[in-house]
Records
---
Amino acid sequence: MSATPAPTTAPAPRMGVGKWLREHAVLIIGVLVIAYMLIPIAVIFFFSFNNPAGRYNFTWVGFTLKHWENAFGIPELNEALLTSIKLALLATLVSTVIGTMMALALVRYEFFGRRAANFLIVIPMATPEIVMGSSLLSFFLILGTGLGFRTLLIAHVMFCISFVVVVVRSRLIGFDRRLEEAAKDLGATPWETFRLVTLPLILPGVFGGAMLAFALSIDDFVISNFNSGTTVTFPLYIFGAFQRGVPVEVNCIAMILFGITVLAMGFTTWQQRRAERMASIRPEQEELPPAAVTEIAATY
Amino acid sequence: MGATLKRRLGAYGLLAPGTIWLVLFFLVPLYFLGKLSLNVNVQGVYYPFDWHWANYSDALSLYDTQFIRSFIYSITATLICLLLAYPLAYAIAFKAGRWRHAMLLAVVAPFFTTYLIRTISWVTILSDESPVVSVLKFLQIAPSGHVLFTAPAVIAGLVYNYLPFMVLPIYASLERLDTRLMEAAKDLYANAQTTFFKVTLPLSAPGVVAGTLLTFIPATGDYVNAEFLGAPGNQMIGNVIQSLYLKQREYPAAAALSFVLMAIILVIVLIYIRFAGSEALMGEEGAAI
């Protein structure tokens, strides 16, 4: 008895721990999976401060800031990045306009061929990128068109349209049509109604679709790989540099892009909240997830 | 009557640019892919269309290993993704409380950095001297202490890259779920397990179906992970298609492989949707898609 002084109290906390673990098992697994998803980003971040011995930035050698100072000091890399940004901006602009038009048509009109149109929008999202990339290349080869920025733009707009339609449409479904009727009753022309009522209301959705299109375009590798010719985008530069060693500056630029995206997401969230305050599209929702999250989740 | 005609014309007018773009640059190229796959190819010089079906049998008999390997890798990766994603989606939807948005943000955060660099960072994580591999070695999961440039490394890369595509649809379907149904199950004396298997899981099936498709389809055609994290013996069919198109310039063989890949995936997807009996993908208003 005296050898074991606390036999009654000892099992209690242990059982507590076991119970706690069991109750929170799902959450613990979830946090571990999130860690798995975030580790590579941390690696990219830390290795942007690495001072690798050779050309390969795979093992940690020592801390340096020189690659951050030189982040925009590699001409080919800068050129690739500029090409990517230009391409993404143009592809976003075109696909957002075209995609928003399609979303408007699909939500507000009943017409013959609606199912076919829906199918045409879904099917590119369910096709492996390599099939889209190789079929476009076959198309350009048989037509005899040279490959380059133009063919990249065609391809990027093509794969962005569907995503823009899906995002914008998910926003339009909760849209209060009576606001437009009210504008019409007050003597607004169709164009005035669109510009002053419809557009401001659907703008957060359109902006979300545009952001998704930009993100898809600037990060696209597979389809670009097939249709770029000699044009080099940021992902194509990285792929090309892999064998001879990717410069550390790429990590710095990746982190800069990461930062900009986070800021842009904050901005969208703010925009969305403001728009919702202006006209309560979704009145009973106190807490809204960040815009881009809903945008991407809505895609599925 | 005039008004309905005008409305209908309005709808077609709005649809026209996007439809034309998708038909011209998505559907028509598929036709050209099929056409190119039937050209004769002799020593890199290719001749016009000739119903050359031998391209298919030649390509398939040459690269059947890579084809089978692609499906083994992508199906394994999809199953692992499902096992990892479901608890995470469940945790975000029901257990995270005020951390919900932060966790969702963490799920999409990988999208904010370039896909290729993220994949390359796995070369660091899985290199022989890395702490991760030491732990795996200690746990006897990787007794040789060598993970990089093996099949598990390629599969780990695939799992990592496509995990968000599994988490988000499952989360979306769980979030839409009426929690009163779970309470009702409890009121009717179902235990946690029964509630999960009889109520929660069936109701989240559309998310699972969408997630598995969104993971399986791109993973099968992927060639970046095999290129960066695998050895030559881990090449997937994507690597073959890419190299035949862009390096060897054996277009007809490459087009034939690409066409077969699309056809097999299409058949698997159709069977799967029929089998799963879900309208998750093609449902009319079906929430999103």
---
Amino acid sequence: MTTKNNHPKAATVSFRQCLQGSWGDRILLLFLLAGIILLWFQISQTLAQGAPTAYVYHGETLLAKYPLPDDEHIIHVAAQGEIGISDIEISQQGIRFDSSPCSTHHCTLSGTKKYTGSVIACVPNHIMVVIRGSDEKDDKTITFDAISE
Amino acid sequence: MVKTTKKPYLPPRPSLEYLENKAVWLAFVLLAIGLHVFEAALPSLGPWFKFGLANIMTLLALMYLGARAAFTLAIARVTIGSMFIGTLFTPTFFISLAGALTAATVMVILYKVFPRISLISLSVLAAIAHMTGQFVTVETWFIQQPALYYLLPPLLLLSCVSGWVNGAIATYIWQKLQEKV
């Protein structure tokens, strides 16, 4: 069989040696890790400061926006998506998908997210919830189809 | 009277090398589908993240058979694998296909530009491309919110790890295969 590789035939090494990689691999990894950490830092800088607020989106549309409650209140947002209604719970503990009409249920299995910059998305239903600091300019709470307990 | 029988037209036989390459490609595709389905059956390591074991086969197809084989393998394994796991033509399928094609494209370009690049480097860069391709697809087609990219950096870090391990596995298999041939 003719192979189309340009690599020279190397002496056989164990899997452990393969796992160690070459110096070139390590340097590349170091650069990539530095780049990713820098990107992470840049993204965290763009998050607005202020009280953590949950934003619920359907595609491009902002459906609801609630500051995370300070007390025991639990807010349920029924977000109408492409395939049905996703029930999103906003509480002191954070945000979580209570139920979703999707088949994969990655969104409900994501659990509760509390910190600024956290995102939970239900891709089949095109619904996303994100926690951001509330903007000073855009501080109007949008209440849409929500039930408060 | 002499009977003349017309010789039936026989197409030229494909060369042994051609048949061998087809067989190897098919073996890689079957293994890639197996890994794709196996990974779908495993407990999720977290939302949005998979180890990407099937990319090992794309990498090996590129090394052994070239760019075209790598692309066709990526498309075949996502399509047939999705049929088995019941996600064909769902958002998961399109996201998976976008990731696999982006990874294959990056692998092919890097391999053409830097022919001596190691499989580990190739795999790490392909894993990063795979994850980025998936996010761009989701942001373009499904959830048009840039806030989605908040999730990207931690997942890219995990991609580096999975890409490194997959690259090491591919290196090991590649040298073992070279021994036998």
